[in-house]
Design goal:
single chain; OB fold (Dihydrolipoamide Acetyltransferase, E2P); seven-stranded mixed beta sheet; 10 helices; globular
């Protein structure tokens, strides 16, 4: 250990990293709670501005023992060293700091007693241990080293049950996992989608085209775990951080699972985006309709609509006259259309296009939406999209964000264009991890005496 310095953590920043001041500069580190004192060593090079905790010298009363044995290594969770109540307080604080300029920020709504085992999308990577056994887990946060995980605290338990079967099958048949460097082996990842009732999609991602045992493995999974409703083989031999390749082969079942949200059944395929926490998604969508006062006279655009969950739940709960969803991913649009048809909606349409391009064209065609719902990726709404929004002048905006920092940036832009936040509510969609979802409802406030 080189030279260490004694510092005190003052707060968490927008990425939920621990921050402290030192020599008139702000540094960030991992795992310290506000108020805690520690000895740290400073990092350099590409990690300049960051520090490594060597020893905590003053421990916060809020610190608890993490429930997970691989917590420090894995990097999937960030709040297992404190109580859930305190985690919610810290998430509220971060949201308030970022968003208070735009209106009152409510306390973060949490999951209550059952804040574990909620993740309905699970991804496991396969590797060979030093002893030659098949292991599965997640890559270490800072390296390409696999951290074996047999029981994750935030994932649905169906996934760990099936992974046990897959690991055993591969060991029994002496099938080594795919190795990115040698380009040999078979399976490299397994992706799961799990519905509220436990219906499970298993997607086996294989690095080689030839996998003769594929049907036998699918049979074994389905026989041992009747909750598995479909098994897909996906081919991906690229050196990439993307889990899935483009090619699928259905080995069993229909190739998708269905899940129910607000009484509507949704079709979810391996390639589509679906909120990872079904219970909280339902809560946030219901609140969005209630708090925005969306009603039967509204014509609505759901931008970045994914498989159409918000569009359909909002159409059902509000009775809105017309609802259009726009989404870039064709697989998600197909899922949305299919679910809308099965649910009997006749006033809904889904369009496979860039949200900004679609809205600009809609303005060109003299269309008007009274409400625009937007739920963009972490990078926030695109500039061309937001510019088109303010040009169209919808009376209401419902912004659902998974990144309060880009939400703040976009709210600043909208505030300058007469949109005022009526309500800002954080929801803990991702308990125990460094993420938070925020619902923001805005209305257009023309200046007194002005025509628009
Ligand atoms: N509203 C959905 C999905 C939100 S995730 C839900 O709650 O389930 C964000 C979605 O935006 C993803 O499905 C992604 O494919 C889509 N997306 C990303 N960039 C886009 C763009 N420029 N135009 C339209 N959709 C986009």
């Amino acid at each position: 250990m080189g030279k260490t310095y004694t510092i005190r953590c003052t707060a968490l920043n927008e990425n939920f990293a621990s921050v402290f001041s030192f020599n008139n500069a702000t540094f960030e580190t991992k795992g310290l709670l506000p108020g805690e004192k520690a000895e740290v060593s400073l990092l350099y090079g590409k990690d300049k501005g960051r520090a490594k905790v060597e020893k905590i010298t003053e421990i916060s009363e809020e610190r608890i023992n993490p429930v997970c044995p691989v917590y420090e290594k894995c990097g999937g969770c960030s709040f297992l060293h404190t109580s859930y109540e305190n985690e919610l307080r810290l998430k509220t604080e971060v949201c308030k700091k970022l968003l208070s300029d735009f209106g009152e920020v409510a306390d973060c709504t949490g999951m209550g007693e059952n804040s574990f085992h909620y993740r309905n999308k699970v991804h496991a990577t396969l590797s060979l241990s030093k002893k030659g056994k098949v292991t599965s887990g997640l890559y270490e946060e800072t390296s390409h080293q696999l951290v074996p995980v047999t029981e994750c605290q935030i994932e649905r338990t169906e996934a760990s049950e099936v992974m046990k079967t897959i690991r055993k099958f591969m060991d029994d048949f002496r099938l080594p996992p795919y190795n990115e460097d040698t380009r040999r082996g078979t399976l490299r990842h397994v992706l799961f989608r799990i519905s509220k009732t436990g219906e499970t999609l298993v997607c086996l991602v294989c690095g080689t085209k030839i996998f003769p045992e594929k049907h036998r493995l699918a049979d074994e999974i389905v026989k041992k775990h009747p909750f598995v409703k479909t098994v897909i083989l996906n081919f991906n031999n690229k050196k990439t951080s993307f889990v899935l390749g483009d090619k699928d082969e259905i080995l069993y079942g229909p190739g998708y699972v269905t899940d129910e949200l607000c009484g509507i059944r949704f079709r979810i395929s391996a390639h589509s985006f679906y909120q990872v926490n079904t219970e909280m998604a339902e809560k946030i969508y219901t609140d969005a309709v209630k708090l925005s006062g969306l009603g039967k006279d509204d014509t609505v655009l759901d931008a970045y609509c994914g498989i159409g969950t918000i569009a359909m739940t909002a159409a059902k709960l509000s009775g809105a006259k017309e609802m259009t969803g726009v989404e870039l991913n064709p697989a998600a649009v197909r899922d949305a259309r299919e679910s809308a048809k099965n649910a009997g909606f006749t006033n809904l349409r889904f369009i496979d296009e860039d949200a900004g391009d679609f809205l600009s064209a809609a303005i060109g065609a003299d269309l008007h939406y009274s409400c625009i719902i937007m739920d963009p990726p972490r990078s926030g709404a695109g500039e061309n999209f937001l510019s088109a929004v303010v040009k169209m002048k919808p009376e209401k905006l419902i912004y659902i964000s998974c990144n309060p920092a880009t939400l703040a940036r976009d709210l600043r832009f909208l505030a300058g264009k007469k949109y005022k936040a009526e309500c800002i509510r954080p929801y803990d969609m991702f308990p125990h991890t460094a993420n938070v979802e925020v619902l923001c409802i805005l209305s257009r406030k023309p200046a007194a005496g002005s025509k628009n």
